[in-house]
Design goal:
Structural class: alpha+beta
CATH architecture of the largest domain: 2-Layer Sandwich
Number of helices: 5
Radius of gyration: 20 Å
Strand order of the largest sheet: 2-3-1-4
Distance between the termini: 14 Å
Length: 156
């Protein structure tokens, strides 16, 4: 069931989306909503799982990872045990920074952050070799530039 948010909740989310490091007092000043109400509303939205987490958007390129690519997988001969092993392995790899189960042609999408193309190839080859019995197909697409990065504030 969808959670109903009012204008005050939406104002708070917009402010947090732009700068999650602001104090409750600053959010209160920017929105014109009393501090206690801001705190209550943030805690309520966290409890209702409207706000899942606060996080930093890191620029992988400036940290020495200019290769930032999506890799999509089609799997076959899949069972619960194989899927659990596959996901556990992906989650354990430090250069795999995102893992999602998807619908459509692709079963899973991951993001790999790599130092160079050789490093990217090493990561993807290691995954492919370890799970060659269940990986039917894969495709990669490098991210050249992120053009939009937000958390749906405009939709609520």
């Amino acid at each position: 069931m969808a959670i109903k948010l009012d204008k005050k909740d939406k104002k708070i989310l917009e402010i947090i989306n732009n700068n999650a490091r602001l104090s409750v007092a600053n959010i209160s000043r920017k929105t014109g909503i009393q501090r206690d109400s801001v705190l209550y509303r943030i805690k309520r939205m966290e409890k209702l799982n409207v706000i899942r987490f606060f996080h930093t958007a890191i620029n992988p390129t400036v940290l020495g990872y200019p290769i930032y690519a999506f890799v999509n997988f089609v799997l076959h001969n899949l069972n619960q045990d194989n899927e659990k092993l596959f996901l556990g392995h992906l989650k354990a790899l430090p250069n795999v920074v995102y893992v999602a189960k998807t619908t459509g042609k692709w079963d899973f999408t991951i993001n790999i952050a790599a130092k160079d193309l050789k490093h990217f190839d090493e990561v993807i080859t290691q995954i492919r070799m370890k799970f060659s019995k269940i990986i039917k197909e894969y495709e990669s697409a490098s991210i050249i530039e992120e053009l939009k990065y937000d958390y749906m504030v405009d939709l609520v």
